[in-house]
Design brief:
Heat Shock Protein 90; five-stranded mixed beta sheet; 10 helices; elongated
Length: 481
């Protein structure tokens, strides 16, 4: 019982119930409006037909009474007809057997014309009115609502007044229509509720499938897809859900790869530090050997510090914790600062830094991050430049409203299959030479990832062109101001 009650409560709070409820309410309002229109439209037709019959009957009765005092045979037993002479006397012609009934009729007629009856039981309109005729009146009348019409005419040489009454709805059409409409509306609503529940249950099946899939999918099982065919909104929702799963799977894979690569990069210097310290402690060595060991340990420590710093920066970038103080800056001025920062590194590596045309170009950005972006590109060129005449060239320019920065080197170049992955984290084209012993700038595969993030944060674009044996060119574009 408790389980049934809990299930019933859950059904009352479900979307299926609310859909059916709103659908039923709207349908009920439509049926009510339609039935009301039909009912009052038929009531109007019945009233018009009754008035037409009364007019025709009274005209024929007048023609008959002018030539003969007998009642016209067109009158029905349920009709009420009386003629009053100018002295107030009544002549019973049809439907009224006593003078008291006739006097009651004329009294009611006068009251109706003076609007002394309740508005629900009487209606006055230029010579005719609707009046409830008592069932205990004449033995020939049927009781209920009658339409009465009055008209003056000559009778036995005098001006008299004729009043003719006929049942408003002799065949009870209004009540029968009301019952028919009521039964029809109730049956329609019952069918609508049953069909609505079936349709709602059928329509919500995809949502149930999505819910079940969301409950069963975990971080280690992101390969499941709904693959729901169709072009409706629920199919679109299922396809969106599949797309979200694909993005989550890619994000988790990148995270796992990121953790694995970071662990690998940290394990290598830690292993070197452990080996060097163990070797130094294994036996007594000369001061020069101890100094060499300490230099290696310091180099690996600097490498780990650089790696941790980059990892921390990327983590803060991904979480949105880094705020940029954008201002109007000269792109060429930032490029000169980057060249000055790396001039000593370029000199130690035997690389010539060439500065092209650095026109004054204003952009909107954060100076610190833009300096880091250009420094990473120039540093990348310095590391991988080869040959006797090694150089890295930096240029800036303006194309209409777009500012651009190019960093070109004459290194060995990059093959086409590596270009789409250059900005992936920890991706390195040549892992064998990614770390050079004793160099802090050993290449850990995060510099270009940071470049890509900074460019996107400034709503810019970055592309790379490279050819084996001819060097590599990086081009960054920003909107000029």
């Amino acid at each position: 019982m408790t389980a049934w009650f809990a299930g019933f409560q859950q059904f009352l709070h479900s979307i299926r119930f609310r859909l059916v409820l709103w659908f039923t309410l709207i349908l009920a309002l439509v049926l009510l409006a339609f039935s009301t229109f039909i009912f009052f439209n038929q009531a109007r037709d019945i009233r018009g037909d009754a008035l037409f019959r009364l007019e025709r009957k009274l005209g024929e009765v007048e023609d008959t009474l002018t030539g003969s005092p007998k009642t016209a045979p067109i009158l029905q037993p349920s009709d009420v007809f009386v003629v009053f002479d100018s002295k107030g006397g009544g002549v019973v012609e049809q439907g009224i057997k006593t003078k008291e009934d006739a006097l009651s009729l004329i009294q009611n007629a006068q009251n109706a014309r003076h609007q002394q009856f309740d508005s629900d039981n009487s209606e006055e309109t230029a010579g005719w009115w609707l009046q409830r005729w008592p069932e205990n009146g004449s033995s020939n009348t049927v009781g209920g609502y009658y339409y009465f019409i009055e008209r003056p005419f000559f009778f036995n040489g005098q001006v008299g007044l004729a009043i003719l009454g006929s049942p408003y709805d002799p065949y009870n059409l209004n009540n029968r229509l009301l019952v028919t409409l009521l039964i029809g509306c109730l049956l329609t609503i019952a069918i609508a509720i049953t069909g609505g529940l079936w349709l709602a249950d059928r329509a919500m099946r995809p949502v149930h499938a999505i819910t079940q899939a969301a409950r069963t999918i975990s971080e280690t099982d992101l390969n499941r897809r709904l693959n729901m065919a169709g072009r409706d909104e629920l199919s679109e929702l299922a396809n969106t859900f599949d797309g979200m799963l694909s993005r989550l799977q890619s994000a988790f894979e990148r995270q796992r790869q990121f953790v694995a690569d970071a662990s690998h990069e940290l394990r290598t210097p830690l292993t070197i530090v452990n080996l060097e310290s163990s070797r130094a402690l294994a036996s007594k060595r000369s001061p020069q050997e101890y100094k060499h060991t300490l230099e290696i340990i310091r180099s690996e420590n600097e490498l780990m510090s650089h790696l941790v710093s980059d990892l921390l920066m990327l983590a803060r970038m991904d979480s949105g914790q880094l705020e940029m103080a954008k201002e109007k800056l000269d792109l060429s001025d930032i490029a000169l600062d980057a060249v000055e920062r790396l001039s000593s590194l370029a000199e130690r590596k035997g690389v010539r830094l060439e500065i092209g045309e650095l026109d004054e170009i204003n952009i909107l950005g954060d100076r610190q991050f833009l300096l880091l972006l250009i420094s990473n590109l120039v540093e990348n060129g310095i590391k991988y430049t080869l040959g006797a005449e090694k150089f890295v060239k930096i240029d800036t320019g303006l194309d209409e409203n777009t500012a651009w920065l190019r960093v070109k080197d004459n290194g060995s170049g990059i093959s086409a299959e590596h270009l789409p992955h250059l900005f992936d984290r920890f991706y390195r084209v040549d892992k064998a030479r990614s770390r050079e012993e004793g160099e802090q700038q050993g290449g850990i595969g995060l510099g270009l990832s940071i470049v890509d993030w900074i460019v996107k944060a400034h709503h810019g674009t970055v592309k790379v062109e490279s050819e084996l044996g001819s060097g590599t060119t990086f081009e960054v574009r920003f909107e000029a101001v």
